[in-house]
Amino acid sequence: MTDQYNSICILRLSAIGDVCHAVSAVQDIQAAHPHAKITWIIGKVEAMLLSGLPGIEFVIFDKKQGKAAYNQLKACFKGRKFDVLLHMQVALRANLVARCIPAKKKIGFDKHRSKELHGLFINKRIQAQSEPHVLEGFQNFARAIGAKCGIPSWEMPYSVEDESVASQLLCELGRVFVIAPAASKEERNWLPERYAKVAEHAHKQGFSVVVTGGPTTLEQTLADKIVSQACCPILNLVGKTQLKQLLCVLKQAKLVLAPDTGPAHMAVTVQTPVIGLYAHSNPQRTGPYLYLDYVVEVYHNNLFKQKKKTAKQLPWGTRVKGADLMSQISTEQVVTMFDHVVNTERL
């Protein structure tokens, strides 16, 4: 598809990690179509991170408003018609949002990744890919309208004030090692006592340790356990930063340790190395994109135990189940990876 586009609509509502992946593809689109007006329909929380992204009009879809949110979209787009909609999310809610968006072309995922009636809400599909990372899937949307995509890069929106807040929080800490311990589901979190041991190791190597996260009870409780069990000083910033300020904290850090969670992907966008901890999902599909070599995972072993097949023999993205899978990742594995990354990145 080599048409010229004057108006482009992006539909990707959530989550934090996924919209981070999408930014690089959207910025490739901007490079290919510098005169196009780009509108991005996005979730309320995700907009807090990406607001101010140059050249993008954001329209917030607040799922908590229920039916009213769909009516607001219809009213917002009344009398408008986009040249193309890039429908980058297959969830049923997103598919229903797509119904509210008038567009000449509605491009969605290939049949292999299409689900929840996705095919009913599009009239064209991106090319199928073999074992793509989520980010690479988004790149194919950009390619579908003529953009060229190589190694991804990001220009994330944050202000001088955001950087200043981060600098003040990290004042005189020197080399900072950030632990972002909490995923969206508790079963994807590593054990607090093991985070604490890695924190102690990092401290002995001359790093200042910082724990970050949002204001939820789960995140605060996990952080408190890590701090209380570590025999070294830890700065607890959980619940004390807005998303853009957290992005700047991650930018100023030397290294980040995290499970499958939004801050891991935020760190990638500002080129801070990430050690990812994975058990339930394939890190080749959802891991920290620029730092997949630094993942510590037990996904593949558990996948074979449960399915008797390898990842290549199963539908791409097959997940494994279990409440205690993350406990199979040992402290020694993560400490070894920590040392490897420090030496490789010369931190």
Automatic annotation (TrEMBL):
CDD domains on file: GT9_LPS_heptosyltransferase
Lineage summary: Bacteria, Pseudomonadati, Pseudomonadota, Gammaproteobacteria, Alteromonadales
Organism annotation: Pseudoalteromonas aurantia 208
Gene assigned in the entry: opsX
Keyword set, alphabetical order: Glycosyltransferase, Transferase
Protein name: Heptosyltransferase I
Gene3D superfamilies: Glycogen Phosphorylase B (3.40.50.2000)
